[in-house]
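Dear U.,

For the methods section draft, I wanted the exact inputs and outputs in one place so we can describe them consistently. I've listed the two proteins in the order they'll appear in the manuscript figures. Please don't edit the token lines directly; just add comments below if something needs changing.

First protein:
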Amino acid sequence: MKLWRSRWWRAALLPALVGATAWSGPMARADVNSDYPLIIDVSTPADGQCAGTKGAEHTGLHGTTAVYVPPGVPAHSDVEWRILGGGQPIRSGIAPVNSDVVTVGFDIPQDELPADGRLRVDARSRIPGGAVGGYGKPWNLRVSRDCRPLHVVSVGDSVTWGQGLDLDRKFGDLTTETLGTQTGRVTRLHDYSASGAALDAPGLHSDNAHCPAANAGGGELPDVFCQLEEAGGEARDRGYQVDLVLLDGCINDLDPIFGIPVGLTPGSQDLTAAVRRECGGAGAEPVNPAANVPYFSSSKLGYGGRGMQDAIEKAHALPGSPKVLVSNYFYGDAAPGTPQAVQQRWSEFVRTSAEAFRTAADRANTAAGETFAVAADGLFGQDGGSLGSDPKLWMNPLGDEEISLRLLACPPRSEQAPQCGKAVAGHADVEGARQYAKTFLLNPRVREWFGGGGPLGDGFTVSRTSGPAGSVDFDATPAGGAIRQYEWYFGDGVHLTTTGPTVSHSYADSGPNLPRLVVTDMSGHRSMYELGEPIVID
């Protein structure tokens, strides 16, 4: 039973809706309460326009709308209702006022629904003699022209996707949920990530195609390429097309326990060269020097010959030729007491891997002749500044500064080392994770693919992209004039918020430093811009 049809509800609430306003005469005056007639319900099937089908063809959106007309409207009056999409009426009608609630039906074919799925329903009264009132308070809803479920695949290391959070609150889940809200489509997440997974582990690919099951061969976890094999097989078996792949990799190839922060793992001392080898796929070592490291580390699976570009292209080859979002790691502050040398090495890793991911995505797009891949991150800064809700968030956006590098690297139930039993001991911050996911989806390419309207132009300019250490000038005038806040992420971990479009920043480290800018307009809408190339200091 609809709530508004209940006599109790009407007796209790309708007088409150009317308040002190009563229409006692013809509605020719312009000063009547503009809230009425009031749309109090729009009822559609549970699956919206996707419930009614004719064979394989969706027939459109069907439903009813209920209009409340307050007491005092003259006899023989009518209510005129309309449904607007894109600011234009797409359905309208006139019904007689024979009770305080008038119910009318509507039917909108699928191809007449607006591209953004936003509908607005309102109504006005028509009084005998020709007087017409104003349209009352509207009812807003969102539907979709696409009735296919939106299928998202997440692969890589589960730390990035939210290890330690409940199953429905991991980054992949929250990103998929946000995409569903943004597109108006039903969403499905297929998560193949595993904590400790490497990007490429040649030992798992005896014939370069077959992948063993998880934990086969002495506890080794399938790498990204194996996860993609599994994702493709399931999609083909179950007959669905993949829309988006969330991809990360190569952090475990370099050993996040000691290789990245300290440089003790063989082959990780020269971090730039190691990133080029593992993330960029510059070539495999004949023998993995980290294979016998006597502590837990997935680096013993690494030293593969395939890099991120190969993984991106394999992801795009899944059924449906999906878009690919490559997740970079988290810049952020280090835990209190972390040695400066460790912070510097992590900073170097984040920046060099971000550039490797960006380059891999660009090369994959060029090779394919289309833009299907993009590298993105959560825009975290050394000062804790981010679009998240918790200023304490550092390297892991899903925890706090109590989580150490060692815990980040361990699977939740590992038996290989005692310290791994506490891998999820950090305090989960679900809201921080949600904001992190929303920040990823600010990427202009992702917004172009899944709604939100870009932007794809240059939102800011810089005075130089190379040269000696020192100041670089930024100008966000191209982003437009109706901006109330500018959030600058300079690519070296420094985050700054300004109310004006120009700023200067001094670079000391060589980089690569890729600046981004998030602007907030007067209506609260956020847009992100990214420089076309990183700033490199000689």
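Second protein (the one for the lower panel):
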Amino acid sequence: MRTNIFLILLLSCVAFEAKSRDLQIESNADSSQNTIASVARIAKQAIPASARGKPSGVAPLDSLGLMNAAVSGNVDNAIITKSPEDVVRTISDKFSDYLSLKDIGVALDNENSETDIVKINELWKKTPRQTVFIPNSYWPSINGNAIVPATPSGNFVVQGLGKVHLWPSYPVTDHGIGFPAPYFGDGVTSILYGANSSVSFNRVDAHDIGFNSGLPNTAFNYVADTSKEPGNPGAPGMLNISIHTVAEKHKHGMESGVNDIFDSLSFGSYGDDDVQDWHHMGVYGTDWTWSNIREVNQYVPFYFSTKRDGVYDQATYINEEDFATGGPENSKGAYDPTQYNRKMFWLAHGYGTMGFGTVDKAGHKTAHIAGAVTWKPSTSYHRYQEIIVADSTGQPYTFYALSKDYNVLSGLPDNARSGASMPHWVFANEATVADGGVIWTCVGKFTADLGEVFGISGDNSPQTGWVARIGTLMSEDTDYIYNAIFDMSKAAFDPSVTHVFARMQKDMFLDLTADGTQAGQNNRLFGYGDGVGLEYRLSSSVNGAREDTVPFAISDTGNTHISSLSIGNDSKKITDTRSIVFAENAEGGNPDHQMSLRASSSSAHLFADNMDLGKITTSVSVPKSSHAPCHAGEEAQDSKYFYKCVASNQWKRIAWDKENW
């Protein structure tokens, strides 16, 4: 490379001197073949000894014809080329590809900060371009604090080739993120600035410039402070990294947008966690927030194969998790899900960085509230911003802020400032507290609520004729289940609400059909039927010719319907002539006492410990004649007679004794 540069500069000088002397130099068609010796020979012949080394614009040469000092004079138009097929460019054109701040007189030496920042601001007003810092540059500063340049007229890129001292930064550390983001002005992208990392991409997009109006962004650290971003519907705003792959009709085989392979040999000790993919989002404010979104859009519908062709036409998996493992689980987790070592999906839910509470031995609570959510005097609070305040017992309560002039229609003002001294808090739901320009509203005792863990929604619209269905929400194939399908044995419930394990709508039943629905189609159902109540329902294929397809039901009024009944070890039914009630241990657990109700052909007797306590008769209305309709055993009475049905439709009567006892 040095040989080529020497050749370029030397030939330029030779051409300059030869023109004044009408000296013609015949060049080799392939200049790359010239050696240093041959070039020196040509130069020595072309330039007289009297002109060598003198300040006439000619490169000084030594006795061998080689340069021994820097070239002086303007060489902007010197030609840069290696071979005839190369594009011819001048030195000035080459050096204008990028601009170093030192090229415009910026010292970057920590001694000329005031003049340096003036020159940088002038550069920032010019046509957007890329500029660089040389290694160990000192950014302009005042009292050890780097100066932020003025907002540029367009998008600018600055690049540090080495460490840049005191680079200006955006104070994101105020929120505990832990690093200062390089901030060279609104919309300025910084690359390789050398701050504690070998490679870093940073862009600070501040309030006076919109992201989509400028450069694309690939960022490890990205700070957004702008109201210019597009929003919904469907317009991504501050999109840091975008990978978009499109398959066209000639594509065959597998397509993978991003394939991240992480092979951990796990040679570390306890606490040496191996994490392949970690999503962390710090939420501060009132935006709708998503941490991990997976969307699949099926553009063109295809009929799903019935396997008649031997293969599936199509299969779609939105989120497949394959976990290959071996070895038993933690033995403590056999019947205790909180002791499992392997967790396929684990949601760890808590109150994050809000703070925590402690209880001493006497049972006294103390709330340790994080600084970000404590009340502060003379502080601007955004609308609906929350704080946590503890009462005298240590119970934390949540309050949200609105300006006392807040208008719910306009959503303004956005902010209001608290008073100089702490207000008198009222710890009751919906209670309001005046505090400077802020009105605080209490929303009750502090809770970290998670409204829904698994939510499924869709575009089902049967009223318009567009129907979307889901075959099965959850299923299991062939794995043995050694504990339970659902284990809520350690679930803790809010004591202020009724504890509910599952909630179903009316006319929704549990299917107790053992073989599923493919053959039986919901043969045995248990649930709440509208208009009937809690019922056990059978299909006609199970119930056979019997008319009663609901053998058991309890209505909302308390009426119980039972088609057949057996208690204990007696298997007789109501329609049989044997015991219909057989209650063991009738007197509170004594196995020697039993009660039963038995029916004969004409009467029912009550037995206790196999002792006949007598018949159970039925009282009816007084018959009008001795042949009035009746069933044997029925009885009636009035002030004169006692009536007894001795046979079907045959009555006998006996007059009451008139003597007084």
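Candidate sentences for the figure legend, describing the second protein: Confidence is low (pLDDT under 50) at residues 1-34, 52-57, 195-199, 574-580. The radius of gyration is 46 Å.

Thanks,
Y.
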